[in-house]
Queue: 3 jobs
Job 1
Amino acid sequence: MIDAHLPILLIVAPLVSAPLCVLLRQKTLVWAFAFVVCLASLGMASLLLVRVLQDGVISYALGGWIAPWGIEYRVDVVNAFVLLLVAIIAAALVVFALPSAADEIAAEQHYLFYAAYLLCFAGLMGIAITGDAFNVFVFLEISSLSSYALIALGRDRRALIASYQYLIMGTLGATFIVIGIGLMYMMTGTLNMADLSERLPAMFETRTAMVAFAFLSVGLAIKAAMFPLHAWLPNAYCYAPSVVTAFLAATATKVSIYAFLRFTFTVWGAEFVFERLNFDALLIPLSLVGIYAASLSAIYQTDVKRLLAYSSVAQIGYMMLGIGFVSVTGLTGGMVHLFNHAMMKAALFLAVGCVVLRVGSSKLADWKGMGRRMPITMAAFVLAGLSLIGVPLTVGFVSKWYLILAALEKGWWPIALLALLSSLLAVVYVWRVVEVAYFQRMDEPAPVKEAPWPMQVSMWVLTGATLYFGLQTDLTVRVAQRAAMGLLGVTP
Amino acid sequence: MGEVHPALILLAGGLLLFALPTGPRRVVSVLLPVFGFLNLLAIPEGAMWQITWGGYEMVALRVDKLSLLFGYSFHLAAFIGAIYALHLKDRLQIGTGLIYAGSGVGAVFAGDLIALFVFWELLAITSVFLVWARGGERALRSGMRYLAMQIASGLLLLIGAVCCYLKTGSLSFDHIGLGATYHYLLLFAFGIKCAFPLLHNWLIDAYPESTPAGTVFLSAFTTKTAVYALARGFAGEEVLIYIGAVMTIFPIFYAAIENDMRRVLSYSMINQIGFMTVGIGLGGALGINGAVSHAFNDVIFKGLLFMSMGAILFRTGSIKASELGGLYKSMPWTCACCIVGASSISAIPLFSGFISKSMVIQGAADSGAVVLWLVLLFASAGVLHHAGIKIPFFAFFSHDAKIRCREAPLNMRVAMTISAVLCVVIGSYPPLLYDLLPHPVDYVPYTTTHVVLQLQLVFFAVLAFVVLMLTGNYPPELPCVNLDVDWVYRRALPAAVRGVVRTGGPIVDGFFAGGKALVQKLIAAIREQHNTEGLFGRAWLSQSNVLIAIIFLAIYLIYFF
């Protein structure tokens, strides 16, 4: 019985828990509560994926109002995959938050942190699960507003400015999205995605359709931090508390890319976007420029968090590149990279969080001799960094493999070559950190002191995942392949 | 999946070594190859460890006679290397050394191109630490150049594998042959690791820069893995005969004038791989048997020679022929082992080199290529001279350099003795090795013709050496740098550019200066634009962000219309 209500429980649980956190107030109690909620969500998300893989699409009518009149939650392989990803990250990070947030966030704001964390989590899950276009906007605002608050919790004064900048850009993006959705509603009179996809083809000839898609895709590109609309991201990641950085880096941009996929392939259809509008001819060069420009910027950063932030922008370029191929292999590559990058970037930011806890700084200059001071943390950083480069046996290699395969499938070998060469830039920026941490002596010797065990555990769970899924690609690739087929409407 | 993957024991064990304190580490490091070897004996032939890696059926473990022979050889080398490194307190060398050995084992048991690629890259990454272990700027830079070449080889292999999959729909690693473009990519990938002519500089560059124990490990795995890959993929390709013949000839001149003894051995290594490449190129049972058995023997005797030179470096701090001499008084045991190794590499009857190298030469003779046969004979005489005579003579005899040091440590002597005994045993009782070969052997090494031919070579090479020494015409051992083809890209090209600039008048001058300035400007511009103050690296103002978003929207709209 309760099984049938899984989709709504997955959203309601964190959404309702957020105000409860404010009521509970007591720090440990709030943490324990958030932990239980995240764990329960993880369980539900895994169950949902299993169910979808077995029985196919699950449709849930909210409040018993049948779609297209009511709001529909619609779970297929694509979003079940994203839901699971967000739930994994949220559960792993809430463990990390216990010591890390205690260190980086003022004590009287702890309960607010967990409340905002759960709200943001609920918002992101909502974007992923809903089958209603306007509902996407609503959840987008929930997750965005809470993430502004989360970023502003950072101790550095500049966190406020970074949050404010993100607020401006985020609002602009959301406005564009709502304009796009509004235009779609105007044309068809419906907000249900499945319904939209049936009614939109009649409007393909109109200019309104083009304008609607333009607004929608630019809005989502801002939220996904696609180059050159990424400028809000480095500062937001840099000054936010470490656990927030890891959470946003691993989930927020990924969910935006999911929304982009959903609107592009399910609602508008590949035929309209890529054949009529030739969107791929715009997307592929943009992603390649993004990969190179952001990777080069990452090389010259002096703060590890900023370095990783620019690297994130570059990695989003890879995902967009995979989407731009408009083939099953390409989309598989993009989707797998979405999952894999979330794992490795979260692991990397958590390693940074461990160092910040002990050293109090993510400035590269303060990382001298870190290889000796925090050997376990730095080992995780190096392993996840290898993944970022795309070394075999790590998840990074799996994603690169599919992207290159997709490029060669189309016969676009220069793109394959460019994508391969860009990994060399990743070698450079990862090496910069490694060089400082392992080869430069610290100014004054300090004793070995690792981060507390909850932080270690959650960091190593994610680092382990980057290795595990590098070898055992059954779950990720198979699911991504099915998701890609679903998006393109290809039957296996 | 009932079987334990042979590579796993060395890989996991090697990692474990990093965590152990010195005492247990020493014990475990020697036991690991033994365990690995016992495990190997228990594994049946066939394809195992079929892993589904995102839709592909992969075979991570394929056991047949060819891979088993290399597997045995690598375990033996790891065992001897581990004993040789026992005295070290440094966990980096023994740890990476065994992981490196494990990668080699993994590569020879890989049943498909992706598994091969994974271990191929692992070989590159782990081995570079052995070069860096020496410490210092020189080793660091040499290691970097080495790594660049190895990674290039890996990338070629990857692209070749992807193309192979797209063309044939299969990734299995069997006979490849030459035909399509991607076959050449794979050949190049193997060729870099195999030190084909013009691609060989990484070997000469990096191996002599490593530590005494590091070079022993390095000499065993990388090139032999490549020989295995060639034997598996390109057996019987005629082009390999020519490549191999060149490889046997050109290093002997460099080796004759080289002063650094371990560099002499590195050149000699290319020469030996040349023999193996010729054997693979000849193909057929005799050629392949000759090639792989020579690889097996080379691991032992080349390791032995590197060990003896390493012992000298360890005790005296020098490895230059011009600074050594007369060491037989101080290090008699090392001297004896070195002579056994030298005899083996010179293919003197009753030593291991003889029973394998003569197979390749016989194969060449059978094929009817007289020139090839003569080339190989000449190369054999060359080996005899530079490795068989020069190495022991200048290190242990020659003029007395008045160095008085202690004999090599016990563990080094034990390792060298094991290798030396193996050289003699295999050389005196060939069936020991012949039974392991991939094809049935009907070749008899100890016939009058073979023995007499080889002894003639020995006598003439010795005669030539003695005559040259007595008449004073032997190239003197001078502390100098010899130029190899890497000189072309490290010195000559820049110098040529400078030369042209100097003589070519103001126009050319301007062109090159302009080109140089352009590159510098480009890098400077990238730095300027991307550093934390630059356009791409700094935080942007909110209004410019918004402006960009709006411009972007406009671009989209214009594009869509």
Note: The first helix of chain B runs from residue 6 to 19.
Job 2
Amino acid sequence: MASLARAYGRLLAFLFAAITLLWILVLVLVPLGAMIDQALWWRESKGDVSLAIDRLYNDIALAQLDRNSEKDPAKQAALDQQIAQKQAEATALEAQEKNPPKTYGFANFTRMSGLHFYIFVRTILYALMVTLLALVVCYPVAYVVALASGPRKAIVLTVALIIPYAINELLRVYAWLMILDYRGVINGVLGWLGFLDLDNRGWIPFLESPSAVFVAMIYTYVLFMVFPMVNTLETLDRNQIEAARDLGAGTLRIHRRIIIPHAKPGIAVGCIMTFMLSAGSYSVPAIMTRGQGGDWFSQLVYRQFYESNNWNMGSAYAVSLLVVCTAFILIMMRLFGVGLRDIAK
Amino acid sequence: MSTSTESRGAQFLLNAYVALFCLYLFLPLGVMSAAAFNSFDYPSVTQWRGFTLKWFVALAHDQRILEGLRNSVLVALGVIAVSIPAGLAGALILTRLGQRSGTMLYSVLVSPVLTPGIILGISSLIFWREFGVPGGLFVAVMAQSSFIASYAMLLFLARLQRQDRTLEEAALDLGASHTMVFRRITLPFLAPTAFTAAVVAFLQSFENYNTTVFAIGGEWTLVTEIASRLRFGLSPVINVVGVIFVVLTVVAAVTYVLLKGRRAVAH
């Protein structure tokens, strides 16, 4: 703080610190805390409480009947006491029914049904597969753009990559929807060649399988892998490659010993971005499945908020997703030996 | 021209691979654009019913899309107003902090960039409901700003690393006040970056879907409206929106390259 005051003067230093603090608290940390808090409590569902109240009133009515047909005053008094006790219980429950108390615990996490947990795991596995495939597909592209072409060609290629990257992700998903649709490009071409009979609904239902989401997801997020790799590879001194070649290293060895080690931060960033985007993507599954293919985890989260109106469960799902993504980032950082400063370049 | 560390055969294979990759990137966009000119009611290129411009006319009369466009611009302007000052302040603080406290603060400030968009939307939605603000344009501005401010901060930070501090120190020695130094030296130095950051913030906000869809509640932006059209009832009108996006992007990219090329020649 002292160094800040020296650099900017007290007034400005205070102003900058205040704005930064406001950003951290109002936009980042407190909303995150609110979400975690929301995930940790729940109210007993009204149905159970109402059922218990109904049961109590049944018991009371029965006891009342017994009481009226009872002659022995001692037994009458006992029944009276029983009725009063049940009445008090019912009143307490009725208050609870109107305004159920918050209960804190991890039940929102453990209550996730088997099907939802399966979807959770499947979403993460698919996201990992998208990441791995994108890495394999993009490495040669990044290598060519950054190292193996002249400056003019590199500019042209960069622009060729930036254009699809800059176009809205929904439109990129939509393009694949048109290709894989029942009467889309692939079915259309196959029908035209005579393999399929489209007029009698003899098309291949691509959109009903999760692989449609997978294909569109790779297309949508593949470029988030290319640019970080290009950025780090561009800083590699080409003389290193020349030297290695002159000393007799083969192509594979040059990649393994020189280019890939240099590209590490870029690979880590690319993997983190691609994984994070595909694991948390709502747009791609929502558009591609259109209610026909299987669900993705992000769709379950959305429904908890906007259809079931169960914000507590929804928050718990969101926190689970956040935990997985954070774990992925930490693992990648450890694996590739990069710090956060390298990541956010 | 090329470094030619590869043999001729390998070079050919690599080039073919990259060409194929570009084809993979552009072909789907071409399909989507072409369908905007097909007079068939359902977006398609295989069922061609003749060339038409009627979907462009339909778009011009589509009230919800036009309103969504207006909302998108409003949200984007709000995001610029929030995230540029926040990013600037964060960057100014970070450049003067020591290694350890700096790294801590840095982690917190860039963490929204690495967080899935839906999480940012959800946490903002929950946070603002506590204050009685339901999902809508305002919450969308707040949710988007949380990560767009980080991008702005990274841009400012990169610029500040190239700053020559002796200029500020000299001005202070000569008796200028801190406020004056900031206004006359630091701000002009950062002005081009502020412009770039504002453009980036506008585009990021305008294009954003995954965060916005959770924060927007009952209102809509152009992008959330496109998404709901894609889910319920496809129409070539959306392809027209796509064509406009593609054309604008290509024009912007080509202009950028031409400008860059001219600058390279001038130097």
Note: Chain B touches chain A through 97 residues (CB under 8 Å).
Job 3
Amino acid sequence: MSKLKKFKNTQMLIATLPLVALIALFFIFCGVIQTYGYRLDIYLQIVFNEAVVLAVVATGAIFIYTLGTFDISLGASTLFAATLGVTVYNKTESLALMILVLFATGIACSLFNSVLASVFNIPAFVTTVAMMSVLSAIASQIITTDGGALGGISIPSSVVEPYSGIGFKAMLLIIYIAVCFYVFQLTKTGRRMKFIGGNPLCASLTGIKANKYTIIAFTMAGIGVGLGAFLTLTYTPSVTTQTASSIGMNIFIAIVFGGMPISGGPRSKIYAALVGGFSYMLLNDILEIVIDSSAAYGITQVISALFFMAVVYITSMNYRTQALPR
Amino acid sequence: MIMSEPILEMKNISKRFGSVVALDDVSLTVYPGEIRGLIGENGSGKSTISSIAAGMQKANEGQMIFKNKEWNPESMIDALTGGIGMVVQESGTIAGITVAENIFLAELKLFKNKFGLVDKKKLYEEAGKVLQEIGIKNVKASDLMGSLDFQERKLVEIAKVMMKKPDILVIDETSTALSHDGRTLMYGLIKRLKRENKSVIFISHDLEEITTVCDTLTVLRDGKLIRTFEKEEFDDDLIRTSMIGRELQGDYYRTDFEATSQEEVALEGKNINYGDKLKNVNISLHKGEIVGIGGLSTCGMHYLGEALFGALELDGGQVITESGKEIKSCHNAVSQKIGYVSKDRDTKSLCLEASIKDNIAVAGMNIFKNNAGMITEKNEKDYVQKQVNNLSIKCSDMNQLVSQLSGGNKQKVVFGKWIGCDSEILILDCPTRGVDIGVKQAMYQLMIKLKKQGKAILMISEELPELLGMSDRVLIMKDGEITKEFNRSKDLSEADVIGYMI
Amino acid sequence: MKKRFAKLISLALVGVMSAGVLAGCGNSNDTASAAKDGVKIGVLVADVSGEEALGFRNYYEEYIQNNYDVTFEYTDALESAEDEKAAIEKFASKGYDAIISLSSSDRAQQIETCEEYGVYYAIASGVLDDEQYEQYKGYEHFVGQIGPSNETEFEAGKAMGEYYKEQGISTVAIYGAFIPNPMHVYRAAGIIAGLGDTYGGTDDMNGMIGQIFGDQAVDPSKIEGDVEVVAYLQGYGDTTTDELNAAIQKAPEAFLSVGMATTFFAQTLAQNDIQFADIDSFTEMNLDSMTNGTLTYLAGKYSSSIGPVFALVMNAVNGNVIRDNDGNAVSLSQGYLVATDVDSFNEYYVTDNGDTPIFDKESLDTIIGDAVTYDDVKALVESK
């Protein structure tokens, strides 16, 4: 049984690696900022603001990824929700109504995806590809028509000013992660989702209704989108056609950086997006500071890509070593 | 017995996977015309040693001599060309192409016409001959591989190897995939090879089968060669004891020969129709009863198991429980306390990449959730640990991945999943398939215990001995219909039953 | 397995240790690196590859940086309002003195962020729309804006259209670049108006641009008039290859572009012998297109046209925040210069090249200093 013990140790180590990496990156980041003599307090806020939207949307997305499917329209949904939210605010001047619209839109987009997927039995990622184009096209239409020469639409910054503090955002983040943790870890729902992701056929033969959990997963992701759109607006109260555009891809990276297999299943972890999202942003900022970007455009992307592959290699290591022939 | 020159000598073979020793200094000699059985529990090394001979993997230490020459095959194809062919345990065919293309996969260029295209007609003709050669009748060379069932695929694989006329044929656990006529066909082949002075290495779990088929029998345990028995030394108990390293304590099958059950009908299928797989099937299962269903693997009995569990969309008929609830989906079935163990364990009954804990707990959450409906670590662990203990699942701990378990322990996990959540009705499709003898015994005893507790058990099996050994009633199916029903009795023999199957 | 395990542990240790080392050395060093050397200005850019953008960058990084005690840092391509805000915050954290913006996702927010962090801010190569200017002109750190206004963009397009109408051309193709980018919308509307055509029944600027924003493109079927627009395309050069080929099939007499045509299409247009016009900069590549290719009209800015903005920022950092006569942030409009042949092009190109920009050190020095006033700046900008 000694091989099993070793295997387990390796697995444990791999499981803690993302967290170790986050802590290491954090210290490196602080070190770099200090070395260059920049203002750490501002820089930490920047990282937080950059990462918080990603962490929230990606945490919602984990429910979808856990089922073994994925949704690439979440960035576009965030844009779309923010667009409708701003439009509604400008028409009604009601913050409450705006927030309602943000969440309703996020959930509606997500539900639409899942219902399409389950009613027509199309793989969810196919419907999300279509949704991505449709949503960003509609949002662009609204933004350019209403925004005109300004190139974007916005609400007065005073509206969201009270909610732009780091403390408030951190609180929202914690509440959302706590709710997700509860659903994911402490309810039948979360367990069943992981099981579906691991083996949908077996899940069905265990009496688990995949459609029901697909809808729940997309709803959770929709809430993340709504919250993400709200957090985006508290950072910059304007929406342009490129708002949240990087989120779609970054979700993927954050989840992998967080140590969760992109195929979902039982090894899914709800905190992966939180850990991975912050790690990724820290890494980006470190590279941005250390490497002179004017030397070569995209060099930071190349380095983070290499880092990304290293993470994938390490996290997949335990699955390869287990492949012992009999 | 046969005192000619050995055709294959494997000397002091060792094989390690990382720190796991799969083979430890094993020597094996095979003579021409010999049918050599290899038997042992899962993980004993019987597949490993034969796969080394057949070029599937390389030994870390040791030497092989085949036909008086040093033998170091680079690949299975290399080995097959050289004269050792192996029919593997897991399917080695490709689903998307035709049978003929599978058979001639490595040699399609032989069939290229002057335009460089494959001459389909010639290909099908040749493949047809190959199939005929070993007596496969209901598979056409032009059939798509994916349209064949498990048994037919296996037979095609055998044909593919036999076409090369190997000097040694290695058959690894193939018979568990074959029904009666498939086996008959295979036994015929083995006899023919023997007549031609060719050798066979035959690997099986099934003690009865292996002692019937083989001339000599080598027992492996934990990577070591324990003993080789000559035909005249064959003794079931002795072989079993050397396989598991201890005496098999207690009973194997049921010792009573009374058909017993309670009055209440636990589950009833009425006029079940499903394509041409199930035709007007009526079946009832009582509490405290074990009903066995037997037949050829294509007779529809596996569909019947799924139909009763609500996993099929029936064309007609209904499945009703004791309380009058109709089972229309797996979800219904599970909420009516029905559990289903699939024949296809790894793909249908388990989530391989999940832990033992996850697999067992998933069906029992309604039982161990706390008052607030929450799933707590402690409750879950207690629940799972109970199953692990009750079923003696061999594992380092419950967080071990199921994929790392042996076949028998995997099956125990599946049982744990359904027994833990108090299933009243168990539908077991080939519950002892690919399970070694020690676990088999445990399963049978468990079924007896469950019967006594008043659970209803439907056991679908391709192995007649266990059907006769365990069932209160045996139903025989053929072409989607139930053709005969036997009650449990001391006098019932396999010969009585087989006639209704074919 | 054992080896791999050890590898993992060492990897983790290396990470943690290097973190510690870096953090440690940071603490001991921080007084040394806090010392200021010269003025530091961050530049927000959305376009990092266009001819005009490269010309601007070259002017700041080569000419200005060599002649003044100043350091410029450019951002990566900023895609959205969030990117812009984060970039400003990063500059603020690095202790930068000022920000010059060439990026326009959300300028209102840029101004507010700079105000929040107490960093001087100026807009180069463009201006706010009137309403926004009214709102922010009193902001303490908003130094000002110098560049073509939206009306100027419209006029630049209009002049191009008129030029070809006078040449007697009856069919054209229009390239709308990155519509609905406002700058490109105004220019495209101007071109249509200049050709003497109407868009959706109007030739009024506001009427046209409103429709183009709504359509997110120029819809050729809505164009009516003497000069026929036979083809319209927009987007990045690589995505429009098929459309370009289709447009060439229609054999327009001229290909009128609102920007970036040289970068994307010069070669293909030359091969098909179709003359084209562009609004861009006086750069080497455009000169080559005019000399050897089919570029027949270029409305351009000097690469050094962003010089006066630098002067405004420099003054502000040094304590002389220049305000206009009403006490508001400076707002000056810069027009385009038009070259229709190699000679006129050369005139602008040679004079604004490398070491001898139009806004050279000598002229800038006249508007950098403690005593410089709004009128000095205005006079210099309008003189060129």
Note: Chain C touches chain B through one residue (CB under 8 Å).
